[in-house]
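Continuing the batch. This is chain 6 of the set; chains 1 through 5 are on the previous pages. Same settings as before, nothing changed between runs. Recording input and output for traceability.
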Amino acid sequence: MGTKFIISVIGMFLVTYIPRFMPVYGLTKIELPQAVKSFLEYVPVAVLSALLFPVIFIKDGKLFLDLSNVYLFSAIPTFIAAYFTRKLFTPVVVGIVSYVVLSYIIK
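Output for chain 6:
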């Protein structure tokens, strides 16, 4: 490994770590109002939705609501498991199992 590579890795580490660390470090020093805390509780759900919905509903840049959409049909039991369990592990397992089973049934 050359010096340029090591400097690049350290630089990439700093560029990605500092913007993530500074807000967390700064927010631990102050008490946030309850309204801000309530608002921030929705951020993970919003980010997850923004990541998942295009995968589930869009194919080749177009809306894909078809009976051959394995992602859509495997998302249904996954969302139900997430709603009732309120855990992380169970919906992940349900999603993987339902995707594998439905991919053999549908295709």
